[in-house]
Amino acid sequence: MAESEGSEKPTPDETLKLLEIVGSWKDTEADRFWTRFNFVFLINSALLATTLIAYSSDKNLLPLELCGKHLSIIALLALLGAVVSVVWFFLLLSAKRYEDRLIDDIDRILADVDRFKAKVKGYSDRSAGTKSIKATIYARIIPWMFVIFWSVLFIASL
User: How many CB atoms lie within 10 A of CB 58?
Assistant: First the structure.
């Protein structure tokens, strides 16, 4: 019985082309990870600057009512900052999972062709063989630092 067309093993040239495509996607996703990180970091920085301006203002800012409670502008900014930071964390987590999936695809492609294994290294933390903590780990910690900051500020402003 003849093998179906989908189960045929790709030629080395096809494998190399596939490796280039998946590698390109992985690089693009890594760039997007940092673009997203920087964008939301900028939003949090703007919220922080606005909070500092509101805090240093001589005027007693008009309290706003939310769910029967009077909240100051600072409390609302802190609440908004905490929400943005939690969304930021899950956005980064989702992007890292997608990048990890692409790295798994690269591993599978390399497993099929032995001649590429020795030449292709450093496309991921796993392939580089290092045990140090990477920048993406720190990038996922920073949103929680902002969540803690905004939460403390919110509680203190009540």
Answer: 4
Give residue 120's pLDDT.
60
Please return the burial class of 65, using the count of CB atoms within 10 Å of its CB with bins 0-12, 13-18 and 19+: exposed
The owner of tokens 């991921």 is 124
Q: What is the pLDDT of residue 123?
A: 57
pLDDT profile of the chain (158 residues), mean per 10? 58 79 84 91 95 75 62 86 95 87 80 62 54 74 95 88
Write down the pTM of the prediction: 0.72
Helices and strands, counts by H and E, the chain: 5, 2
Paired tokens of 82 = 């905490």
| C-alpha 149, offset from chain centre | 19
- Which of 8, 19, 11 lies closest to 116 in space, CA to CA? 19
Within 8 A by CB and 6+ apart from 32, the residues are 95
Token pair for residue 14? 């096809």
